[in-house]
Structure formats: structure tokens, C-alpha cells
Q: What sequence folds into this?
């Protein structure tokens, strides 16, 4: 079969049943991405004979004589297609994994199509941006700027990798060719949610041509670990084996095949015979705590650090200060309610994947889609009994994370396969895997009781929280503690009580998700506060002003003497409340409402209009230690190389790192060479979670750069410029500077003390009371991020967080059948917001400077997500007069609130 | 995605080359077949290779080949004497899948996939189109599209049969129509899709899809009263339940839209 790709003839054969996407990638066209492999997401879009198609569903046998154009064929970094340039200039990408498909698709648009973007882009999912920046890019709006030497901080400079991403040149996890033949790993997944493996016969699979090895629990290391990763491994429960004879959720690993191709590996799975003893199971977290419930990890001992294995409780917190019951009895107004949140998939467009091999020094190397390469290295060494210096873990650019890649899900099996075969082995999750065996956001049942006096001052706040951590604990401890942290501390109430339990079930494991538990409890608390304000007949903005924490107050959850390292490095909540209220009470700006430029306020008796607001607070870094050790080195050509552990997955941290370094060293960001997310290039980095990329690693880099500047000027006193050191009117060049030996400095930060950041969101909505449709008329968020280091990127984080939260609030739900099976295993049944679903969010920044942050900046990546769902719920409540208690507030649920 | 269980793809030159069985399935555009694992499928016969004329007009019918691309269907020039033709674009836009899929997906493939939200099924059932089914022996039979789709992922075809074409009666295209749909997200998979049609003789048919496992048609001699319509809707005993909408909501919005359609058709007078 002969066809053309990007003008070059390709002669090849395709397997029966093969699609164009995999054929292109076999021929090193790695610019063609896999987001779903089902025709839903558009990441693999290419042109075939000028027509845009999804290459993942295009039958390869039809290619004879055809001409295929990928994003790499549209343009090069040197000569980009106008749209490629526009995506860079418009800042129309974050992780960039959807970008190739976006650019290819948009390259076919006519002038008329620009008014029809919701429809024309409904086959392209972006999980990061919230689509506003993509709209801008397609419409030719420039949002980035260039910075003069030493003046990058505070400017909307572009992402360093932008041009490589838009032209398909940037490598993600699997976008490279391994010198030796690559083997593939596939996993046999349990059809039962709770079972014991009685026997396994792998002989037929092992005998198949092309099969190298078949693993079962008999091959598994005996070391218990947690897939959730933190700085201190003792924070998470040791309840997981690489392969376990006891099955605790449907889809758990039963066997793994390593074969020459994915096809052979998949076919070999069908030849494995397994005999199961089906065990009792528990799927309801309420039932899981009752006597007699099936115990998911009942056999585990104290070494697993499970709070009460005999009650399926992995973690619990029960505490109070003051006297809530008396306060309730004496209150002027009391509100009580129980709120429920759903399972949400991170839906990062790049699925989890790892490729591993043995390097020339005999070390194990894992290239993996992770937010935490150092923590993966440490745990792999722990599980397999390897010295840490015999393992190298690194991440290329990662296609989205959102917490889902703070998890060790593919690296262990690849390690097992590489150690056994000595070969290069790859394990790539499918999209189905992402929905069924990767983690989801913890579903929570949150009961809130809140009381106030006749002045509208809170007198009591009590939360009773139950979360389903699923079959394995991973983040079930940390998420539980965090969930009732800043969500409770943001309100000043003299009497507070917290009851929280994190419970095992035989459902798929939950895990870390943007906001790390806060969002679920904030949804409940902020809904209750809205209801309390109504009861007291106090404006919701005013109610918050009277009751939120103020600068200098103690951040009390339940223990006012708690000596945590959390403090007010700055305070901008008051500004955020004012900014949002003023915006809401002002006429909408030109760019508001829908992304397509109009704000249609629907007319008709069936439409009800309402507004709602919510506040949110979050710590600027994770507790219990977060470390970054970085280096900055001067190169002879005047560039600087930075070594930093932080991974780039659309968080934009890399951009800020170049800005910080360039600013200190009086140069421009394009002269900063970034080496990152590799255990070989930085001494240590806890990882990119808890929004730590700027406030921890960025601060470390700033220290390193400052040290290097001092070292340079010590060697040659003068004025540092982008071209060298100016001594009088003579320039000492970098090469001359380096004649005296290398100029390199390191800088570290330990992540403490921590400050707090704030977000306030308001919506105006119209609700169709006959169908339950919610139309967002205005979306306004104010953020207190301290010093704004890159306004366009920060806006992008807020818009993206808002969009993801609108998905959570209105559309998304990983559904189970009640017996542990996911019934929404694809984007066609799990509604990630598309272009048509997301409004313009009007973004405002508070003006603060944080004493703890780098150049006064605070983190702002998880935070924007948290106030969105309650603000929407409050607006819907305002419109229809009925309180939604359950997420997502889908059209059928809203309709049922009114008619059910 | 790669279909790892497929060992044979047949590219037929004539009808006789199309030999089907439970494991060997006809391949249209492939946009659905290649979108999920098909563990039962071992072979595919690529009907696209037969080169069927996508659209053929006869005095009484507009005949759409099963292999006609959805894009090709939307590109048929609009004719003023065919008011119902507007449904083509409305239904194509009701597909969850984007315009890029229109470049691959076929009209017949959408009908044969027999998903409740299959918008080509909605369109063709709403127009009382007739499926032309070929069998292994060279025979041919016909079935109304509304009867052809018998349930969720099931059709009236046997394992050795395949869909050749769909005949849209010209008189349906000449009819007045009204259209409503809703999904749980703005351009998402339909939760319900209701089409009303009034033919030249005054007869009205309301076709409900997406909210029911298979198309439901309610027929009236003229525009029904609200009570007559409501009574007819009472006869629908199963409202579909899947992640795209709860059955009680689907029933409610279907009733709402059917009534709106009734009012719209009565407002316009006789066709």
C-alpha cells in the first residue's frame, strides 16, 4: 500500500483492522496524538485528501493513493502555518495535547465558520483552557507579549514550548523511537468487583508467537505500597500490591502479557484461563461502615496505616472547638442539609503511559506521564528493592494531569517487565482504562449544619463528611484531611465541629483531583451559607463579608491552637468579594456571556433568572513538606540552563520559571534553557502537585538565580546584562566569564511556611424550568494570586479551572451500575465540556503581595476550580427557588427538582 | 482504535463478494465500528468499495445508498418544493459526532448501528423512509426504517443480510415539518428528538426517537388536539434510560416538544 504523508510517499502494509492513527505513529508521525482512540476527542485529527478526519477511526486499508496531512505537514517552527503562529500568539494551548488536532481542524475553516465555532469544534476536546484562548487563536487575537531583558516577571510571555507544540514537534511521553525493539504490555482485568483468584492458566498465552512473558500475582513483589504519592510515603496507606490474588474492584489487574505488539498482547489475554471465587462486596460507603459489611482490607495490619480496617475506614477525623450544640440551640437561624458529589474523571487528554528500559549503565529508566518523577523513582526503588541511584525516572511534556498523575499506575508493571525481560517495554492506558481503572475524584456526602445570630454572624459550623475512597486508599487520607481544612477555616465561627471518614468500598479507586477534596466540601458549605444568608435576608456578598476570615485571624478548622505552618502572607479575599460584586452589578463587558460574542438573555415565561456567589480559600502549597532543589548555570553562548524537577503538563510553571530566572539574571526568557522533570537533571523535587510549581520550585530557582548573579558579579564586578557583564563601557562576554571555571548555583526551598490564596466566583444564569437547561449568562471570577507573574497564563488557569468545574457542576459523572462496573467508559457517555458548553469567564485579580511567595506570587492552579460549583448551585437556587443538593446539576436533575 | 480480533478485511468488487456471518460484519464508514472494541468481529466486508451511487432520484423517492456519507446527504441542494429537507441538516447537527465524522460516517451505518440517538434513524423514520435490505442469495426486501430499528443496537436484519439503501418518499419531503431536540449538554447526544410532519393530505405523524429504545410513531388523520396527542403519548410504555438522560425527564421533554410541534403544525394551516 502506498500513500503520501506530508508530501512524502510511504509504502507500508497495515494489519487487518488497523486504523490510520496507529499506522502513522508506527512511522514516527508522533505529532498524531491518541486522546480517546474512539473518534470522540479530535486529538488525532489529520487531513485525508484535504478532508479533516479522526485518524483513530479511519480504516487504514483505504489509504491506497491517498494524501495525508498532519499538523507537522502544515508548518514548521521556522515556517509555521498562520494558524500555528496564531495558537502561539493567542496562548491557545496549555498542555498542548489537543493542539495538533485543534490546529488541523481549524485549518479547514472558512471565514463563515468563524461564527460557527461551537458546532465546528464539537469534535475537539480541550481539558485545559476553557476554550476562550482557542477562540482567540482561531480568530487571530494576540494575547502574548515579549519582554525586555530583566523585565519578564509580570508579563504575558509565551510558553517556551509553544511553537514546538503547535507544529507537532514537542515530544510527549510516548513520542519517540527507542533504539531497540519495543515490547508492549497489556493487562487482563478482573470481571468481578470482589473475588479471589483460585487458579490461573497462562500456558496457552505464553506459547503464542510473539509473547515474551506473562505475569500474575505469583510474580508480584510482596511489598505493599500506595499508588498515591507524597513527599512522606507514610502519609498514604500501604494497601496495594503490584498484582494481588484478591480482587477488590472490577478492572483490577489479574495478569499482564508482554509481547511484540499490542495486538499480540491483547489477543494473548483472551487465552488466559482464570478461576475466581466471587466474594461478598460492598458498594455503598454508608453501608461499608455498618457491622457485617464486607471488609475490603480486613486482613491488613497496623503496618498498612489504615485507621480501622475492621470498619472499612481508612482515615477519620472527629474534632470540635466550642460547643456547637448549644450554639445551635441559641441560634437565630439554622440551616442543615446534606450534599452529594459525584465521581469525576480527570480526563487529561494524554492517558497514563510509561516506557521503560535499561540504559548503558545498567540502570532502570522510566519515561512516564507523571506529575511526580522523583516520588515515582523513590517508590519504584522501594517496591522492587532497588537502590535509588539505579533508577532514573523522567517525564517529557505531559498531556494534562489535574492530580491524576500524582499516582503510580503504570510504572510498576513496566518495571517488572523490564527487569524480567531486559527489554524496552511500554504500557499505555486506553481511554477506557482512564475511566475504569485510573482514579476519579472522591464522591462525598457532606452534611452541613450552620447557625447564625440575629446580626448575621455565624455562631456554629459543623460538617459531617463521608467519602468513598474505593477499593484502595491511595489519596483517601490526605484528601479527607484537606477537604475539611480551608473549607472550614475560611469562616469565623466560634463553634465548629468536624466529622469526616474515608471509607473503602469495592468501587474503582478514587484519587487526587484538582482541589484535593476541598471542592466537594466547599460545594456543601457555600450552599449552606447561601441558604443561611437567605434565611437571614442578608445579601450573600454582605453575609460573606461579615463572616469570612480576615487577615491576621487564626486559620481554625477545629483546633484554634493548631500550630500548622499556615499563615497570611497576604490577604485579598475582601478585594475578591468587592471585585466580583462590582462586576456583577455593572453592565457586562463586551466579551462576556457565550464565547461566540453574544449574550442571549432568553425570553419567555419558562425562563427563570438568578445569581449566585461562592468564596474559596486554599493553602498555597501542600502541608508536611514540599522540597525543590534547583540549579542555574551560565552557558558560553549567554544562555542559562536551569535544572528543575517540576514537570510541565499545562500548568505553565515552565514559563514562569523562565520568567523568574530571566528577570533575576537581566536576560530574556528565550535565553533560558530548561532541563526539567528528570531525576538526572535536578537534585530533588517533591513534584508538581498542590499547586507547588511556582511557590516552591519557582522560589528555589529564584534563589539559585540570585546566587548565580552574585557569583558572576563576584568574578567580574560590573553590571549584569543579557550579553555579559558591563564593566565601564567594556563588555565581558559569557565565554570570558567562564574562563575562570563554570558558573553554576543551586537554590532550594522547603515549602514552608505556607500562605493562603482566595477565589470568589459569581454566576448569572437563566434556567429553563420546562427542560432543566441552565444557560450561563455571566461568569465572573476574582482571584487573589498575590503578584501576577504572567497575566495571560493566570487568566488561562482560571478559565481552565472554571471550565473543568462547570463540567463537574453541570455535565460530568462517572456512573457505576451499583455493582462496581463503570457505565460511562468513553467521552461519548462522559460529558467533558466542549466549546459550546463554556461561557466567557470575566477574570479579575486582587492586588496583593505575598510575603512567603516568590516575588510576592501565590499559587493558582487548583484554586479556581473550587468556588464554581457552589456559585452555580446558588445561582440556580436563586432562579428556580429550589436548592440543588446533588452534582452534577444536569438538566434531568434540575427538571426533577421542579417537577419530580 | 485498532480492532485486534479482525483477521480479514474483504474489499468486494460485486455484490456476490459480500459474504457475511455473525463474526464477519459489513463495514460502512467505520466511524462506529472502529470506535469501540468489537470482540465478536473477526472479519469486515468493506461495502464502500462497491461504489454505490450515493443519491438517486426517482419520481417517487429520493434513494440514499447505505454508503452515502452524511456529508453527501447534507450537500444535496435545498429545493423550495421540499420543505422537509431542512430536517437533513437539523438531524446531522443532532449527531453527537462532529462534521469531521460526516466525512466518514455513512447514512446506512448510522441506521444499522441502531442507537436510540442515531440521528439518521430519526430523520429517516420521521420521513417514513423505507430500508432496502439485501440478502446472501441475491434477494431483496423492504422494511420501514421505523420498524427496521427494533431496539437498542438491534435491527430487523439477519446476520447474512445488509442494508443497500433507504428510499425517502418524495411526498414526505414535500410535507411541512417541525423539529425539537434536547440533550444533557448543548450539542451532546440527543436525550429526545421529536419530529412532526404533516403531509399534503393533512395526515400528521409525530416520530419520537432518542428517548425511546426504538423509533415510536404516532399517526393522526389531521393535527390532533392536545388531549389526543397526550393520549397517544401515554401509549409509549418504555422511556430509554442511559447516561444521556433519565427516563422521567425524557418522557417530560418528549411530551413538551410533541405539544409544541402540535401547536406549530396547527398554526400553519393545511400544507
A:
Amino acid at each position: 500500500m502506498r500513500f503520501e504523508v506530508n508530501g512524502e510517499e510511504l509504502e507500508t502494509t497495515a494489519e487487518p483492522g488497523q486504523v490510520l492513527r496507529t499506522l502513522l505513529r508506527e512511522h514516527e508521525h508522533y505529532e498524531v496524538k491518541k486522546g480517546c482512540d474512539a473518534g470522540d476527542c479530535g486529538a488525532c485529527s489529520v487531513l485525508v485528501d484535504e478532508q479533516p478526519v479522526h485518524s483513530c477511526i479511519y480504516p487504514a486499508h483505504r489509504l491506497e493513493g491517498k494524501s495525508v496531512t498532519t499538523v507537522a505537514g502544515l508548518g514548521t517552527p521556522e515556517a509555521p502555518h498562520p494558524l500555528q503562529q496564531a495558537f502561539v500568539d493567542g496562548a491557545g494551548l496549555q498542555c498542548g495535547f489537543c493542539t495538533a488536532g485543534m490546529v488541523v481542524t481549524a485549518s479547514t475553516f472558512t471565514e463563515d465558520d468563524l461564527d460557527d465555532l461551537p458546532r465546528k469544534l464539537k469534535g475537539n476536546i480541550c481539558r485545559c483552557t476553557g476554550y476562550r484562548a482557542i477562540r482567540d487563536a482561531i480568530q487571530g487575537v494576540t494575547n502574548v507579549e515579549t519582554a525586555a531583558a530583566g523585565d519578564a516577571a509580570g508579563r504575558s510571555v509565551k510558553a517556551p514550548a509553544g511553537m514546538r507544540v503547535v507544529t507537532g514537534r514537542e515530544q510527549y511521553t510516548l513520542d519517540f523511537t527507542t533504539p531497540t525493539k519495543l515490547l508492549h504490555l497489556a493487562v487482563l482485568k478482573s470481571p468481578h468487583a470482589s473475588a479471589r483468584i483460585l487458579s490461573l492458566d497462562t500456558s496457552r498465552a505464553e506459547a503464542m508467537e510473539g509473547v515474551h512473558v506473562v505475569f500474575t500475582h505469583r510474580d508480584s513483589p510482596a511489598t505493599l505500597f500506595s499508588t498515591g504519592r507524597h513527599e512522606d510515603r507514610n502519609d498514604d496507606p500501604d494497601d496495594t500490591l503490584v498484582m494481588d490474588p484478591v480482587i477488590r474492584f472490577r478492572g483490577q489487574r489479574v495478569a499482564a502479557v508482554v509481547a511484540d505488539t499490542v495486538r499480540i498482547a491483547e489477543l494473548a489475554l483472551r487465552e488466559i484461563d482464570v478461576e475466581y471465587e466471587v466474594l461478598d462486596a460492598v458498594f455503598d460507603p454508608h453501608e461499608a461502615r455498618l457491622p457485617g459489611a464486607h471488609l475490603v482490607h480486613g486482613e491488613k495490619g497496623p503496618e498498612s496505616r489504615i485507621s480501622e480496617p475492621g470498619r472499612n475506614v481508612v482515615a477519620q477525623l472527629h474534632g470540635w472547638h466550642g460547643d456547637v450544640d448549644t450554639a445551635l440551640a441559641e441560634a437565630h437561624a439554622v440551616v442543615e442539609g446534606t450534599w452529594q458529589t459525584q465521581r469525576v474523571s480527570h480526563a487529561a487528554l494524554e492517558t497514563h503511559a510509561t516506557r521503560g528500559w535499561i540504559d548503558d549503565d545498567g540502570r532502570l529508566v522510566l519515561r512516564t506521564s507523571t506529575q511526580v518523577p522523583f516520588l515515582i523513582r523513590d517508590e519504584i526503588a522501594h517496591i522492587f528493592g532497588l537502590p535509588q541511584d539505579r533508577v532514573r525516572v523522567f517525564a517529557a511534556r505531559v498531556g494534562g494531569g489535574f492530580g491524576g498523575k500524582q499516582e503510580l499506575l503504570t510504572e510498576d508493571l513496566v518495571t517488572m517487565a523490564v527487569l524480567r525481560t531486559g527489554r524496552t517495554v511500554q504500557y499505555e492506558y486506553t481511554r477506557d482504562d482512564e475511566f475504569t481503572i485510573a482514579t476519579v475524584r472522591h464522591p462525598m456526602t457532606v452534611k452541613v449544619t450552620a447557625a447564625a445570630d440575629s446580626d448575621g454572624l455565624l455562631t456554629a459550623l459543623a460538617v459531617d463528611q463521608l467519602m468513598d475512597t474505593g477499593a484502595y486508599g491511595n489519596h483517601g487520607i490526605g484528601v479527607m484531611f484537606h477537604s475539611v481544612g480551608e473549607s472550614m477555616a475560611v469562616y469565623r465561627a466560634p463553634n465548629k465541629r468536624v466529622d469526616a471518614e474515608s471509607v473503602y468500598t469495592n468501587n474503582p479507586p478514587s484519587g487526587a483531583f484538582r482541589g484535593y477534596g476541598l471542592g466537594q466540601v466547599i460545594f456543601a458549605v457555600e450552599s449552606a451559607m447561601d441558604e443561611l444568608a437567605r434565611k437571614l435576608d442578608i445579601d450573600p456578598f454582605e453575609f460573606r463579608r461579615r463572616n469570612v476570615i480576615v487577615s491576621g485571624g487564626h486559620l481554625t478548622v477545629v483546633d484554634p491552637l493548631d500550630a500548622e505552618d499556615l499563615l497570611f502572607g497576604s490577604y485579598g479575599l475582601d478585594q475578591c468579594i468587592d471585585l466580583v460584586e462590582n462586576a456583577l452589578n455593572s453592565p457586562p463587558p463586551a466579551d462576556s456571556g457565550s464565547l461566540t460574542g453574544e449574550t442571549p438573555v432568553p425570553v419567555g415565561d419558562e425562563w427563570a433568572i438568578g445569581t449566585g456567589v461562592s468564596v474559596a480559600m486554599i493553602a498555597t502549597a501542600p502541608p508536611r513538606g514540599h522540597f525543590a532543589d534547583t540549579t542555574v548555570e551560565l552557558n558560553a553562548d549567554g544562555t542559562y540552563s536551569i535544572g528543575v524537577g517540576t514537570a510541565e503538563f499545562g500548568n505553565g510553571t515552565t514559563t514562569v520559571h523562565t520568567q523568574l530566572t530571566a528577570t533575576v539574571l537581566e536576560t530574556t526568557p528565550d535565553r533560558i534553557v530548561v532541563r526539567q522533570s528528570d531525576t538526572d537533571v535536578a537534585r530533588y523535587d517533591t513534584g508538581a502537585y498542590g499547586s507547588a510549581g511556582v511557590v516552591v520550585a519557582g522560589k528555589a530557582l529564584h534563589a539559585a538565580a540570585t546566587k548565580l548573579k552574585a557569583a558572576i558579579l563576584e568574578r567580574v564586578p560590573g553590571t549584569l546584562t543579557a550579553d555579559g557583564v558591563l564593566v565601564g563601557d567594556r563588555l565581558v562576554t559569557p565565554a570570558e566569564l567562564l574562563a575562570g571555571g563554570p558558573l553554576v548555583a543551586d537554590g532550594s526551598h522547603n515549602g514552608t511556611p505556607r500562605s493562603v490564596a482566595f477565589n470568589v466566583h459569581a454566576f448569572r444564569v437563566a434556567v429553563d424550568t420546562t427542560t432543566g437547561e441552565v444557560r450561563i449568562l455571566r461568569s465572573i471570577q476574582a482571584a487573589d494570586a498575590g503578584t501576577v507573574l504572567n497575566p495571560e497564563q493566570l487568566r488561562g488557569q482560571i478559565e481552565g479551572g472554571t471550565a473543568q468545574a462547570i463540567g463537574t457542576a453541570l455535565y460530568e459523572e462517572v456512573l457505576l451500575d451499583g455493582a462496581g462496573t463503570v457505565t460511562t467508559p468513553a467521552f461519548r457517555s462522559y460529558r467533558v465540556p466542549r466549546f459550546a458548553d463554556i461561557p466567557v469567564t470575566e477574570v479579575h485579580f486582587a492586588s496583593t503581595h505575598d510575603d512567603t511567595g516568590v516575588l510576592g506570587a501565590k499559587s493558582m492552579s487548583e484554586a479556581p476550580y473550587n468556588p464554581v460549583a457552589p456559585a452555580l448551585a446558588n445561582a440556580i437556587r436563586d432562579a428556580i427557588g429550589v436548592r440543588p443538593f446533588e452534582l452534577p446539576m444536569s438538566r434531568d436533575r434540575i427538571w426533577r427538582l421542579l417537577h419530580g | 482504535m485498532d480492532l485486534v480480533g479482525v483477521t480479514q478485511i474483504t474489499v468486494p468488487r460485486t455484490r456476490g463478494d459480500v459474504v457475511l456471518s455473525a463474526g464477519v460484519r459489513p463495514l460502512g464508514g467505520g466511524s462506529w465500528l472502529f470506535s469501540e472494541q468489537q470482540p465478536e468481529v473477526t472479519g469486515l466486508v468493506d461495502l464502500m468499495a462497491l461504489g454505490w451511487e450515493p443519491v438517486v432520484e426517482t419520481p417517487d423517492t429520493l434513494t440514499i445508498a447505505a454508503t452515502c456519507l452524511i456529508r453527501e446527504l447534507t450537500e444535496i441542494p435545498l429545493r423550495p418544493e421540499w420543505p422537509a429537507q431542512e430536517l437533513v441538516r437539523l438531524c446531522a447537527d443532532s449527531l453527537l459526532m462532529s462534521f469531521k465524522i460526516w466525512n466518514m460516517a455513512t447514512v446506512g451505518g448510522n441506521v444499522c448501528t441502531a442507537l436510540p440517538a442515531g440521528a439518521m434513524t430519526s430523520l429517516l423514520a420521521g420521513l417514513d423512509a423505507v430500508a432496502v435490505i439485501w440478502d446472501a442469495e441475491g434477494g431483496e426486501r423492504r422494511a420501514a426504517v421505523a420498524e427496521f430499528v427494533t431496539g437498542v443496537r438491534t435491527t430487523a436484519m439477519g446476520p447474512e443480510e445488509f442494508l443497500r439503501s433507504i428510499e425517502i418518499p418524495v411526498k414526505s419531503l414535500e410535507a411541512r415539518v417541525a423539529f425539537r431536540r434536547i440533550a444533557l449538554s448543548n450539542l451532546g447526544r440527543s436525550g429526545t428528538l421529536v419530529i412532526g410532519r404533516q403531509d399534503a393530505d393533512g395526515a400528521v405523524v409525530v416520530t419520537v426517537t432518542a428517548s425511546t429504545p426504538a423509533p415510536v410513531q404516532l399517526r393522526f388523520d389531521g393535527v390532533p388536539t392536545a388531549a389526543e396527542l397526550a393520549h397517544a403519548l401515554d401509549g409509549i410504555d418504555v422511556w430509554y434510560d442511559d447516561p444521556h438522560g433519565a427516563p422521567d425527564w425524557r418522557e417530560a421533554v418528549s411530551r413538551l416538544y410533541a405539544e409544541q410541534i402540535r401547536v406549530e403544525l396547527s398554526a400553519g394551516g393545511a400544507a
Q: What stands out?
A: Chain B touches chain A through 48 residues (CB under 8 Å). The radius of gyration of chain B is 18 Å. The domain at 175-267 of chain B is CATH 3.30.390.50 (Enolase-like; domain 1). Chain B has three domains: 8-49, 50-171, 175-267.
